[in-house]
Protein backbone atom coordinates (compact mmCIF):
# COMPACT_ATOMS: atom_id res chain seq x y z
CA UNK A 1 0.00 0.00 0.00
CA UNK A 2 2.87 2.33 0.66
CA UNK A 3 3.85 2.19 -3.03
CA UNK A 4 0.34 3.08 -4.20
CA UNK A 5 0.24 6.15 -2.02
CA UNK A 6 3.63 7.13 -3.36
CA UNK A 7 2.38 6.85 -6.94
CA UNK A 8 -0.73 8.94 -6.14
CA UNK A 9 1.46 11.60 -4.60
CA UNK A 10 3.81 11.50 -7.58
CA UNK A 11 0.87 11.84 -9.99
CA UNK A 12 -0.53 14.91 -8.26
CA UNK A 13 2.95 16.38 -8.01
CA UNK A 14 3.48 16.03 -11.78
CA UNK A 15 0.00 17.42 -12.49
CA UNK A 16 0.72 20.51 -10.42
CA UNK A 17 4.15 21.13 -11.83
CA UNK A 18 3.55 20.49 -15.53
CA UNK A 19 3.24 24.05 -16.87
CA UNK A 20 1.06 23.09 -19.84
CA UNK A 21 -1.50 21.22 -17.72
CA UNK A 22 -3.53 24.32 -16.91
CA UNK A 23 -3.45 25.97 -20.34
CA UNK A 24 -6.88 26.19 -21.95
CA UNK A 25 -7.46 25.55 -25.65
CA UNK A 26 -8.30 29.23 -26.23
CA UNK A 27 -4.91 30.43 -25.11
CA UNK A 28 -3.06 27.90 -27.23
CA UNK A 29 0.13 26.35 -26.02
CA UNK A 30 2.86 28.77 -25.02
CA UNK A 31 5.67 29.00 -27.57
CA UNK A 32 8.41 26.55 -26.67
CA UNK A 33 11.68 28.10 -25.59
CA UNK A 34 14.39 27.78 -28.23
CA UNK A 35 16.82 24.94 -27.90
CA UNK A 36 20.16 26.09 -26.49
CA UNK A 37 22.50 27.28 -29.23
CA UNK A 38 25.67 25.17 -29.40
CA UNK A 39 28.22 27.65 -30.74
CA UNK A 40 31.02 25.06 -30.61
CA UNK A 41 29.47 23.12 -33.49
CA UNK A 42 28.62 25.96 -35.86
CA UNK A 43 29.53 25.34 -39.52
CA UNK A 44 31.05 28.73 -40.32
CA UNK A 45 31.42 27.80 -43.99
CA UNK A 46 27.63 28.00 -44.19
CA UNK A 47 27.49 31.57 -42.87
CA UNK A 48 25.02 33.79 -44.71
CA UNK A 49 26.51 37.03 -46.05
CA UNK A 50 24.70 40.18 -44.91
CA UNK A 51 25.90 43.55 -46.15
CA UNK A 52 24.88 46.87 -44.62
CA UNK A 53 25.81 50.14 -46.28
CA UNK A 54 25.76 53.37 -44.30
CA UNK A 55 25.19 56.68 -46.03
CA UNK A 56 23.50 60.03 -45.28
CA UNK A 57 21.35 59.39 -43.12
CA UNK A 58 20.27 55.85 -43.52
CA UNK A 59 21.26 52.24 -43.01
CA UNK A 60 20.68 50.15 -46.12
CA UNK A 61 18.86 48.03 -45.16
CA UNK A 62 17.55 49.59 -41.96
CA UNK A 63 15.73 46.48 -40.75
CA UNK A 64 17.87 43.38 -40.27
CA UNK A 65 16.38 39.99 -39.53
CA UNK A 66 18.50 37.10 -38.33
CA UNK A 67 17.62 33.55 -37.58
CA UNK A 68 18.34 32.25 -34.11
CA UNK A 69 21.47 30.06 -33.90
CA UNK A 70 22.46 30.40 -37.58
CA UNK A 71 25.89 31.73 -38.65
CA UNK A 72 26.20 35.06 -40.46
CA UNK A 73 28.93 37.17 -42.03
CA UNK A 74 28.17 40.81 -41.47
CA UNK A 75 29.98 43.23 -43.78
CA UNK A 76 29.79 46.97 -43.20
CA UNK A 77 30.57 49.69 -45.71
CA UNK A 78 29.99 53.42 -45.52
CA UNK A 79 29.97 56.68 -47.43
CA UNK A 80 30.94 59.45 -45.03
CA UNK A 81 31.47 59.10 -41.31
CA UNK A 82 29.07 56.70 -39.65
CA UNK A 83 28.97 54.07 -36.96
CA UNK A 84 27.05 50.84 -36.63
CA UNK A 85 26.07 51.20 -32.99
CA UNK A 86 24.06 48.35 -31.51
CA UNK A 87 25.33 47.65 -28.01
CA UNK A 88 22.47 45.39 -26.92
CA UNK A 89 22.71 43.36 -30.13
CA UNK A 90 26.47 42.86 -29.89
CA UNK A 91 26.11 41.86 -26.26
CA UNK A 92 23.53 39.22 -27.22
CA UNK A 93 25.42 37.38 -29.99
CA UNK A 94 28.37 35.00 -30.16
CA UNK A 95 31.20 36.56 -32.20
CA UNK A 96 33.84 34.35 -33.78
CA UNK A 97 37.37 35.52 -33.04
CA UNK A 98 39.65 36.69 -34.47
CA UNK A 99 37.87 39.05 -36.81
CA UNK A 100 38.71 38.86 -40.51
CA UNK A 101 40.85 41.66 -41.87
CA UNK A 102 42.04 43.30 -38.71
CA UNK A 103 42.32 43.43 -34.99
CA UNK A 104 39.24 42.95 -32.91
CA UNK A 105 37.86 46.11 -31.37
CA UNK A 106 37.90 46.01 -27.60
CA UNK A 107 34.25 46.95 -27.49
CA UNK A 108 31.79 45.57 -30.02
CA UNK A 109 29.05 47.99 -29.08
CA UNK A 110 30.11 50.35 -31.84
CA UNK A 111 31.67 49.43 -35.17
CA UNK A 112 33.18 52.09 -37.36
CA UNK A 113 33.83 50.62 -40.77
CA UNK A 114 36.89 51.41 -42.79
CA UNK A 115 36.54 54.41 -45.06
CA UNK A 116 37.35 52.45 -48.20
CA UNK A 117 37.50 48.81 -49.25
CA UNK A 118 41.26 49.27 -49.64
CA UNK A 119 41.46 49.58 -45.86
CA UNK A 120 39.54 46.38 -45.46
CA UNK A 121 35.85 45.96 -44.86
CA UNK A 122 35.20 44.88 -41.31
CA UNK A 123 33.57 41.51 -41.35
CA UNK A 124 32.01 39.98 -38.30
CA UNK A 125 31.27 36.28 -38.13
CA UNK A 126 28.57 35.70 -35.57
CA UNK A 127 25.71 33.56 -34.38
CA UNK A 128 22.61 35.10 -32.79
CA UNK A 129 22.19 33.33 -29.48
CA UNK A 130 19.32 35.35 -28.03
CA UNK A 131 15.85 36.11 -29.37
CA UNK A 132 14.76 39.72 -29.39
CA UNK A 133 14.51 43.07 -31.07
CA UNK A 134 17.52 45.36 -30.79
CA UNK A 135 17.99 49.05 -31.67
CA UNK A 136 20.58 50.19 -34.20
CA UNK A 137 21.78 53.74 -34.65
CA UNK A 138 24.61 55.91 -35.93
CA UNK A 139 26.36 57.72 -33.10
CA UNK A 140 27.79 60.53 -35.27
CA UNK A 141 26.48 63.83 -33.96
CA UNK A 142 22.91 64.48 -35.13
CA UNK A 143 22.68 61.47 -37.44
CA UNK A 144 20.25 59.42 -35.33
CA UNK A 145 18.07 62.52 -34.93
CA UNK A 146 18.00 62.82 -38.72
CA UNK A 147 16.65 59.30 -38.96
CA UNK A 148 19.78 57.20 -39.05
CA UNK A 149 18.28 54.42 -36.99
CA UNK A 150 17.41 50.82 -37.57
CA UNK A 151 16.21 47.64 -35.98
CA UNK A 152 17.72 44.18 -35.64
CA UNK A 153 15.40 41.25 -35.00
CA UNK A 154 16.52 37.78 -33.99
CA UNK A 155 13.77 35.24 -34.46
CA UNK A 156 13.10 31.53 -34.72
CA UNK A 157 12.60 30.14 -38.23
CA UNK A 158 8.82 29.76 -37.80
CA UNK A 159 8.51 33.42 -36.78
CA UNK A 160 10.48 34.60 -39.82
CA UNK A 161 8.21 32.62 -42.17
CA UNK A 162 5.13 34.38 -40.78
CA UNK A 163 6.24 37.81 -42.07
CU1 LIG B 1 25.75 58.42 -39.64
Short overview:
By secondary structure, the protein is an alpha+beta fold. Mean pLDDT is 77; it is low at 5-23 and 115-119.
Architecture overview:
The structure is a single chain. This protein has 163 residues and is of the alpha+beta class. It has a single domain, classed as Immunoglobulin-like, CATH 2.60.40. It is built from three helices and ten strands. The strands form three sheets. It has a five-stranded mixed beta sheet. The protein has a three-stranded mixed beta sheet with strand order 3-10-9. Strand 1 and strand 2 form a beta hairpin. The protein is globular, with a radius of gyration of 22 Å. The structure holds copper (II) ion.
Write the layout of secondary structure elements.
Blueprint: H1 2-17, E1 48-55, E2 58-60, E3 63-67, E4 72-78, E5 84-85, H2 87-92, E6 93-95, E7 110-111, E8 123-128, E9 132-137, E10 149-155, H3 157-162
Parallel strand pairs: 1-4, 3-10
Antiparallel strand pairs: 1-2, 4-8, 5-7, 6-8, 9-10
Bound molecules: copper (II) ion.
Features:
163 residues; three-stranded mixed sheet; alpha+beta; five-stranded mixed sheet; Immunoglobulin-like; binds copper (II) ion; 17% helix
Low-confidence spans = 5-23, 115-119
The tally of beta strands, per DSSP, is: 10
Number of domains: 1
Which word captures the global form? globular
Instruction: Give the SSE order as H and E letters.
Output: HEEEEEHEEEEEH
Amino acid sequence: MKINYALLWLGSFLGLTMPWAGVSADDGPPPPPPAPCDVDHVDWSQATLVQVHMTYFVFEPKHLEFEYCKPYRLQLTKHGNHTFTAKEFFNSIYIKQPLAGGAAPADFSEIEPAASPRDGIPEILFVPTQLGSFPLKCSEWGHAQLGMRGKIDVELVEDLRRH
